[in-house]
Amino acid sequence: MALTRNSLLIGFGLWLTGCGLYSFRGNLPSHINSVAVGSVVNQTSEYLLDDMATELILDLFFSENVLQVTDLDQADSDLQVTIMRVTDKPATFTAGETVEEWRIDIHTTVVWYDITKNRPLFEQNFSAFGYYPPGGDIGNDNVDNDGDGEVDEEDEFGDPREIALRTAIRKISEDILNAVISTW
Ligand SMILES: [Ca+2]
Ligand SMILES: [Ca+2]
Q1: How many angstroms does the Cα of residue 60 sit away from the middle of ligand 2?
Q2: What does the domain layout of the chain look like in residue ranges?
Q3: Ligand 2 centre from 167 Cα, in Å?
Q4: 98-117: pLDDT as tens digits
Q5: 154 CA from centroid of ligand 2 (Å)
C-alpha cells in the first residue's frame, strides 16, 4: 500500500464529499507536521492489548511516514487511542451446532488532537473484527487467519484468538491512518 500524499488527497477528497464524517474548516492543517502516538489506553480486561495496539499503530505510522512520529513534548499533534470494548461471539456453526468459528470485535475511540491550537482535529470511533477457530493449529488449517493474503505462512502460529485480535487492531490502525490523511 503506497500512500503518497497527493494520490490520497485526490482519492479521499472524492470519497469524503459523499461521506461527511468530518467537516472541513478551510484547507488541510499545514501547521501539523508531527504526531505523538502515546500509549494506547485499554479499558478492557484484555491482557497486553494496549501494548499490541501501540506497537501496531506505531509500526504503521512509522512505515507510511505521513507525519513525523515524535515524543509528545516535540509533537504538534497527539493521537489518543482508547480501546473501549472487546466482544467474542460465535460466527459459524457446524452441522452438529458446535461453534466452528468465533468472531472478535474491537471498539475504539480515537482523538487526534491539535496541540498547537488546543483543539481536536477529529474524534471518531473505529471498530474492526477478526475470526478465529475454537482450537487447532492455525498454521495448518488452510485459512488466512491474519488476513494478509497468504495462507498458513510462517507468521500464522500461536493463540488463534490473539491472531484475530492482531488482525482487528491492524485494520483499525489502517482506518486511523486513513482518517488522519483524509483530514488534510
Ligand atoms: Ca495469512
Ligand atoms: Ca492458517
Answers
A1: 23
A2: 2-181
A3: 13
A4: 998 999 999 999 999 999 99
A5: 9
Q: Is the pTM of this model over 0.70?
A: yes
Helix, strand counts (H, E) of the chain: 3, 6
* CA 174 – CA 155 distance, rounded (Å): 20
CATH of domain 2-181: 3.30.160.150
Ligand 1 centroid distance, CA of 182 (Å) = 28
> What confidence tens digit (pLDDT) does each residue in 134-180 have?
887 888 888 888 878 899 988 788 889 998 999 999 999 999 999 99
Residue 152 CA: which ligand is closest?
2
Identify any residues that bridge with 112 across adjacent strands, giving them in sequence order. 79, 122
The three cell numbers of residue 49 are 492489548
Residue 112 phi, psi (nearest 5): -100, 115
